[in-house]
Amino acid sequence: MKRSNEPFFWLLFSGGGTLAALFLPALLFLLFIAPALGLVEPQSFEQMSAKLRPAPIRLFLLVLITMSLFHWGHRFRFTLYDGLQLKHLFGLIATLCYGGAAALSLLTAYLLWTFP
Amino acid sequence: MNKDYKLHHPAWYRRQMQIFWWLKRFSYTKFISRELTSLAVGWSAIMLIALLWAAGHGAPAFDRFLTLMSSTSLVVLNIVAAIALLFHTLTWLHLAPKAMVVQIGRYRVPDRLLLIGQYLSWAAATALVVWYFGGSR
Questions:
Q1: Closest Cα in chain B to A108
Q2: B104-131 per-position pLDDT tens digit
Q3: Comparing B22-31, B63-72, B121-130, which segment has the lowest mean pLDDT?
Q4: Closest chain B residue to A50 measured between Cα atoms?
Q5: Measured between alpha carbons, how far is residue B107 from residues B101, B104, B110, B112, B115 in Å?
Q6: Is residue B97 part of a domain?
Q7: Per-domain residue ranges of chain A
Q8: Which residues of chain B make contact with A29, given a CB cutoff of 8 A?
C-alpha cells in the first residue's frame, strides 16, 4: 500500500485550526478593524515595529501564520472537492492549495528573518 | 494496478451530484459555511503578512498601509472575515469534546467541563493579544 502523507497535512490542519481559533479573532479585530474604525488609536510605526521585533513574538507569528495557511490549504482543498464536486482535479487543487500555503510561509519566514 | 486507472475519474455510471447540492438543506449550507471559514483564516494570515511587510519597510510604507487598511472595501472585508473567524472559533471549540474523550482513571471528564476549558483558553489567548498589542506601551 502506498504510504500517505495525509496525516502530516492533517496535523498542520488541526494545529492551525486551534491556533487560528484562539488567536486570530482578537488579532484581526485589534490590529486591523478597531484602528480603521477609530475605536482605538492606530499605533505608530515605531510602536508597531518595536512590538513585532522581539524574537519570541517573531517565532510565534511564524508558527501562527504558517499553520493558519496550511489550515486554509487543507480545508479549502476538501471544500472544493466536496462542495464543487471537483474530485477529478485532485492533483491540481492539492498543488495549488499546499503550494500556495508553502509559498506564503516562505515569504513570512523571509519577512520575519529580515525584520529590521 | 491497471495503468489506465485514474484516481477519482468521473465514472459515467456514478450518480451525478449537483454542484449546488449544499443549498438544498440548511444543515448542508451550514456545513459548507463552516468549511469555508478557512478562507477567513487564510485571509487573516495574509493580513498579518502585509502588516509584517509594512512594519519592516519604514514609516512611509507603514503610513500607506494604515491608509489602505482604513479604506471601505478592506474594512468591510475584514469585518466579514472576523464574523467567519468567530464562526470558526465557536465550531472548533465545540468540536474538541467530540473529538477526544478525556479520562482520569475510570472517570470520564464530562463534555461540558472540557468545553469550559476550551472557552477559558480562548479567553486567555485573547487577553494575551490585548495585553501585548493593545494600547501604546
A1: B49
A2: 888 888 888 889 999 999 999 999 999 9
A3: B22-31
A4: B55
A5: 11, 5, 9, 14, 17
A6: yes
A7: 6-113
A8: 82
| Tens digit of each residue's pLDDT (9 = 90 or more) over B36-63 | 999 999 999 999 999 999 999 999 999 9
> Do B35 and A52 lie within an 8 Å CB cutoff?
no
What is the residue range of B102's domain? 37-133
Find out if CATH 1.20.1300.10 is the number for domain A6-113: yes
3-class state of residue B104 by DSSP? strand
CATH of the domain at B95: 1.20.1300.10
Bridge partners of B91, per DSSP, are none
B window 101-130, beta carbon within 8 A of A:
121-122, 125-126, 129-130
> What is the C-alpha separation between B125 and B118, in angstroms, rounded?
11
Partners of B10 on chain A (C-beta within 8 Å) are: 87-88
